[in-house]
Design brief:
Bound molecules: adenosine-5'-triphosphate
Helix content: 25-40%
Number of strands: 10
Oligomer: single chain
Largest sheet: 5 strands, mixed
Strand content: 35-45%
Number of helices: 2
Structural class: alpha+beta
Number of domains: 2
Radius of gyration: 17 Å
Strand order of the largest sheet: 2-1-9-8-5
Order of helices and strands: EEEEEEEEEEHH
CATH superfamily of the largest domain: F0F1 ATP synthase delta/epsilon subunit, N-terminal
CATH architecture of the largest domain: Sandwich
CATH class of the largest domain: Mainly Beta
Distance between the termini: 26 Å
C-alpha cells in the first residue's frame, strides 16, 4: 500500500484479545448518531458504537465485514481503534449459534413482555440485536 498518509490502521480489540488488525483505505462504522466513514487524515474523534457492522475497505476491491457489539471507536494519527465487548469477523461467525441465540432471546422477550418485566425485556432486546447483527453480517 502507499505511504502512511494515505492509509489507516484498523485495530479491533475485545476482552478476549485482538480480533482485527490491518491497514485500510477506509472504515465505515455505525455510531449512535449514524453512519460514520473514516478515511486517512480524518480529524481525531471518539464515538460510541451501535451493535452493527464495521466495513473495512483495504483497497483493490478487498473488503472485510466485522460484527461489532457496541463499544466505541477512537481515531487519531491514522489509527482507528475499536474497543467492544465482543466482535467477530464475518468468516468467524457461527450462524447456527447466532440463530439459537436469536430464538432464545425472542422467547425470553415474549415471556418478559407477558410478565411486564422491563429489565428482562431490555436484556433480551440487547441479546436479540447481537444475534441479528451476527446473522446479518454472516449473510452479506
Ligand atoms: P451466545 O448466547 O451464543 O453465547 P452471546 O451474544 O451471549 O451469544 P457474547 O457474550 O456476546 O455471546 O460473546 C461471548 C463470546 O462468544 C465472544 O468471544 C463472542 O465473540 C463469541 N460469540 C458469540 N456468538 C458467536 C457466534 N455466533 N459466532 C462466533 N462467535 C460468537
Amino acid at each position: 500500500m502507499a505511504d502512511n498518509k494515505s492509509v489507516l490502521t484498523v485495530s479491533i480489540v475485545t476482552p478476549d484479545g485482538k480480533v482485527y488488525d490491518d491497514q485500510a483505505t477506509m472504515i465505515v462504522v455505525k455510531t449512535k448518531a449514524g453512519e460514520l466513514g473514516i478515511m486517512p487524515n480524518h480529524v481525531p474523534l471518539i464515538a460510541s458504537l451501535a451493535v452493527d457492522e464495521a466495513r473495512v475497505d483495504r483497497g483493490d476491491g478487498n473488503k472485510d465485514e466485522i460484527a461489532i457489539n457496541g463499544g466505541f471507536i477512537e481515531f487519531s494519527e491514522n489509527v482507528a481503534t475499536i474497543v467492544a465487548d465482543s466482535a467477530e469477523k464475518q468468516g468467524d461467525i457461527d450462524v447456527s449459534r447466532a440463530e439459537s441465540a436469536r430464538k432464545r432471546a425472542e422467547e425470553r422477550l415474549r415471556k418478559a413482555k407477558e410478565a411486564h418485566d422491563t429489565d428482562t425485556m431490555n436484556r433480551a432486546e440487547v441479546a436479540l440485536r447481537r444475534a441479528i447483527n451476527r446473522i446479518n453480517v454472516a449473510n452479506k
